[in-house]
Amino acid sequence: MRTSINVISIGEEQSLILSKLKTIFLASGATLMAISMIILPEQTFGASVRGLKIWWETVFPSLFPFFVISELLIGFGVVKFIGVILEPLMRPLFRVPGVGGFAWAMGMASGNPAGAKITARLRQEKQLSKIEAERLVSFTNYSSPLFIFVAVSVGFFHDKNLGILFAIAHYLGNFFVGIIMRFYGYSRYERMTAKKRKFPIWEAIRALHKTRIEDKRPIGKLLGDAVTSSIHTLLMIGGFIILFSVMNRLLYHLHITALLASVIEHFFAILHFPKLLSIPFISGLFEITIGSDLISRVKESTLFQQAILTSFILGFGGFSIQAQVASILAQTDIRFKPFFIARIFHGIFAAVITIFIWEPVYIKLRETFNPSVTLPVFGQDQQGILEYLYHLSVQLGPLITITSLIIYILIYQRSLFSNQKK
């Protein structure tokens, strides 16, 4: 008895020590950041503006429509309908319910962190168990096709063919993550209760109708809630983007990035990568947009090396996106740790796939569509279209953002007025 009491007390003491060390670390980090902002006000302001610009011009306009539509589809029962139809595919492949197919498709189309947002929403609706939600969120967060093809490939590398390479590596890598995560938390009970069932179309329609009837909110209320919820999430995302933009800049000026890069340099030396890639890589671990841009500017490295590192950080997602996902998951009982481990796997898979498909995909595409060699007019036209889309999105982004925020303010004001009348 005494031995067990001693073991428990030692365990509790170790836990208390770790908790105190965590508190000291967090407090020290926050204090250091505050002092750095005071010492480096210009750099802080510049990084804040850059983060705000990314959110204002790109993130909000690209995610807002998908968030609202997903909320409406869940409320109208369409997601339940899709879940019944896709159950025979998603259950044996990833061991998640068919509704996971909706999160998978929407996450792929709209980009980070839409997959986490939809997964959390489905968990709140009790359409997923805790383990199923943790499996699903691990492979439904992607960089959007618009970001990969337009911002990274054309905007940073000025090479549209790289977009196809990055997309194959990114999406295929996340598919492999989903296959691996199907074994996460798989119990004997789940294996025994799993049933092979057929899902006729009328059962899907019945589920759709039942879901719509159970949600007793009128269409106007449903639409208002969808807009409000989506903008709440996007405001949170904007805050994280600005915060990590500032952190990235301050860490660089405090030479902490260089210190971390000095550790990475030894690993890069083994891979015969130039040391100058280490700082852009560390920056990419914090924020993928900044990292991808900096990697593309390192002239001392080959395009092959740049592509491998860019694929890794696109898969890893960056601490900025991971913080956004952690904040969304905190509203549920879904744990963040499986998602974080999955991001490491995704980065590794994407980098390895890039190595294997470099010759058969990118080199072949470049030989076929090289603007300066084979088809100059066609290549230049394609490049021009993507650049036009990029500039168009930048021009229309602020207009979409400010219009959406005005609508949100009106809906929120109306909601407050209705509550006061009651």
Automatic annotation (TrEMBL):
UniProt protein name: Sporulation integral membrane protein YlbJ
Alphabetic keyword roster: Membrane, Transmembrane, Transmembrane helix
InterPro entries on file: Gate_dom, Spore_IM_YlbJ
UniProt signal peptide: none
Residue ranges of domain Nucleoside transporter/FeoB GTPase Gate in the record: 58-156, 234-330
Transmembrane feature ranges: 21-40, 60-86, 136-157, 163-185, 222-244, 250-269, 307-328, 340-358, 388-412
